[in-house]
Design brief:
By secondary structure, the chain is an all-alpha fold. It contains three helices and no strands.
Length: 92
């Protein structure tokens, strides 16, 4: 997994330059770093996305394979109904 870098020293120096004292700046830097680390576990990687895409493709193929016989069955039923209607209105 690719790490996102966070320059804590630069962050502390920026906070100190804007009026924070050193303990406050270090505390805020540590808190942000901890949140960033905890959020990294929830990010999807490119491999995760590839796996999901593969799973979706497999599901599409399975659904298509299960629907194909239903299509033919429906076609046969509709054909039979049309034949019965035609036979009713146009007897020999």
């Amino acid at each position: 997994m690719t790490a996102i870098t966070f320059d804590t020293l630069k962050f502390v120096e920026t906070l100190k330059a804007s009026g924070f004292d050193e303990p406050q700046a270090k505390g805020m830097s540590a808190a942000i770093l901890e949140v960033q680390k905890s959020q990294m576990q929830e990010l999807a990687t490119k491999e995760d996305i590839r796996d999901v895409k593969r799973d979706i493709k497999e599901l599409e193929l399975r659904i298509a394979a299960e629907i194909a016989p239903l299509k033919w069955g429906m076609a046969a039923c509709v054909g039979g109904i049309i034949a019965l209607i035609l036979k009713t209105f146009f007897p020999h």
